[in-house]
Every structure is written in C-alpha cells, then in structure tokens.
Amino acid sequence: MTPQTRTRPLPLIVHGGHPGKASPSDVRRMNRTLIFNLLFPSDARSRAELSRITGLSRVAVSDVVNGMIDEGLIRESGHATSVSGKGKRATLLAVDPTRLHVIGVDLSQDRLVEGAVTDLRGTPQNHMEIALEPDASMDPDDIIRLVDRLGSDIDGDSLIGIGIATPGVVSDGVIRESTALGWRDIDLAAAVGARFPVPVTVVNDTIASMITERFFGDAESNLMFVKIGRGIAAATLIDDVPVLGEHDAGGEIGHIALDPDQGPPCPCGKHGCMETLIGAPALRARMSGADANGRTAVLQDAGSYFASAIAMPIGLLDIDDVCVYGPADIVNGTFLDAAQNRLDAMTVSDFHERTRIRRCQQGAGIALRGAAVAATMRHLESA
Questions:
Q1: Rounded to 5 degrees, what angle do the CA atoms 59, 64, 67 make?
Q2: What superkingdom heads the lineage (predicted)?
Q3: Is 346 found in the same domain as 311?
Q4: Is 257 helix (H, G, I), strand (E, B) or coil?
C-alpha cells in the first residue's frame, strides 16, 4: 500500500468502538488522525499535498496542522525541492519524535516484564526490565511498578499514553483469558489507569507485533502474521484492518484442538492443541537428543503441519503474505522451506497465486514497539 492511500490508522481498530453521529470535535479528531497517519511513521508532506490527498480545504488542513504542531505531534521539517528551482518552496511536515513520549510494556516473555519510554514511533529511549522469580506469577502490580520507574525519568506533561502488549484475548482493556499468564477477566487498563493519568491501551501481543511489521517491516495491507513461541498465535490484517472476531479472539489458533482424542494435554484443558504439537517447547523436546537428520525431520514435519493448518484461511481470505515470528532454532530455513512447499501444493491455482511464507525481520522488542504505536494512535483517537 502506498503512503498516499493509507488513510485508515491501523492501530485504532484494536480499541473497538462503534461509529455514530459525528460532532464537530469528532470531525476535528478524525481529520487530525487522518493527517497524522499520512505522515506516520516517516513521510514528509506539505500542507498543499495533505489537502490534495484528504480532500480537506487548505484552511482546514492548516487549522488542524497548527494545532498538532503546538501539541508536539508533528513539526516542520524542511522544504520540498522545487522542480523548476524557482518560487517559494513548500514547507514539509513530519512526525515530531522529540517532544512527546509513550511508555510501552511487553508481557509476552517468560518471567519477564519489559518496558521502555519511546517516542511517537515506538523507538525506545529508556529501557527497563523486571525479572520474576521461578516460582512467581506475574501480577498487575509488577506492571505498575515498572511504569512508575519509567515515568519518573520523563516530564509528566510529555507522557501521552501507556501501551501494554499481552498474550491472550483482550477486550476493551480487559484480559479475558490468558493461559500464558494464568489470568482471567483482569481489567489491566483500569488497574494501570488508576495510577497514571493518561490513556492505557492493552493489546494482544501478536496484534502489537503485526502493527510493528506493518509500519516498519515488509508487510502491506493484507497479511497473516504468526507468532511461534511457548504458544502459537496469529493476527490477520485485511485492507489494513485487524480481524478481531466476534469475541476479540481472532487469531487464537494455538488452542484449536487438532487431535482432541489422542493429542498431548494443553493448559487450556483440551488435548492436541496446535501449540502442544508445533509450539517451540514441544518441538525442542522432540529434537532433544536427536542427531542433525532427526532435528531436520522434526522441523520439516512441523513446517508441513503448519502450512496445512493455515491453508484454509489463506484460501478463504486470499492472502499472499505470511510473516512468521519466532526463535531461530524453530523458524529457520528448514521449517520455512517445508511450510512453503506444502502450502504451494495446497493453495496455488489458476485463481490463487503463490502465497509467500517468510521470517519476520523485526527482532526483539517487536511487541513492545507495537504497543507503544497503538498507544500513540489511541491518543489521537481520544484527545
């Protein structure tokens, strides 16, 4: 998707909400969100160009832009190059990474709460971690303590939001179910928001990771993003809109029971769930003690099995890009080649071209950055 056509701010969709009759303040909010999204993360455009793309009058664009500059969301960043070399050059606008801050938190790692102060693009500026004891479970107080430490080092007026990435099903800031954390119906947004006077955005960690891949990676507007670790989860993007599902559980493929009768037990209470069959712990256990050929065979089988599991939604939704995030000993060439071969055999046809399966290149911090970006977009939505 080209920047000129990206008019829907992707992360806003994760907060839910229903459209209604727009008031003047709603219209202004939508206009500034639209303009910010056309500049995010690193585009530079003139007021005249923003007017042409959005269809807003130059007066309306200037009014919104001036307010965003005063607030610290965007800044003037130089001048456009004149084609003729004559006349006054247009002033360019870009996202301002210097004045406002967000705190991002990642709960998706085993026995680790990771947080960072970031700029509006989710770029970390100050990083902290809380390591949990082996027999300790994560508690909302751990998150509050970390955010408190991070926030003490920044000007309170510059903090515009807190974004938290968490495994599990999230609905309006409430973690409905997270087997990884052992949480059920935890209103994390309210717990953290009671301590800090800024909006708190809680987002599923796989969706947060997909946000990072969409804005800073190789993805375009249609994508299946799969995260393989201690569990397996997916997030799907269709025309730049995350597919959340009726109960905000879209992408929870790890707990689909593929062998409910004879498969291994899962913490969710069923047997034969996908993550017990091809999750990282299960595959490592199977590869333990095996020789090189044995390890290769395990990964090839896992890749083929993975492709078989995603072939149906790929064909149903006509997606041509699958991005897989996971540890290098699992999501590597052996796994991906086997998955690609199997998916090609199952889906390629005269009316469905080849879907590419690729390894995510974003690296560590992907969920934290996505949560911070979601918090930035939430600020635009709520201010």
A1: 125
A2: Bacteria
A3: yes
A4: strand
Q: Quick: pLDDT tens for 281-322.
A: 999 999 999 999 999 999 999 999 899 999 999 999 999 999
pLDDT in tens, 332-362: 999 999 999 999 999 988 777 889 999 999 9
Same domain? 222 vs 199: no
The tokens for 17 are 């909400």
User: What predicted TM-score, i.e. pTM, was given to this entire model?
Assistant: 0.90
Among residues 95, 324, 307, 318, the alpha carbon closest in space to that of 226 is found at 324
Contacts of 52 (CB under 8 A, 6+ apart): none
In this structure, is the dihedral angle defined by the CA atoms of residues 215, 219, 220 and 224, taken in order, positive or negative? negative
Instruction: Give the DSSP H or E segment for 282.
Output: helix 280-287
311 in Cβ contact with 355 (< 8 Å): no
Query: Measured at the alpha carbon of residue 210, what is the angle toward residues 207 and 215, in degrees to the nearest 5?
Result: 130
Q: Give the residue numbers spanning the domain of 54.
A: 3-95
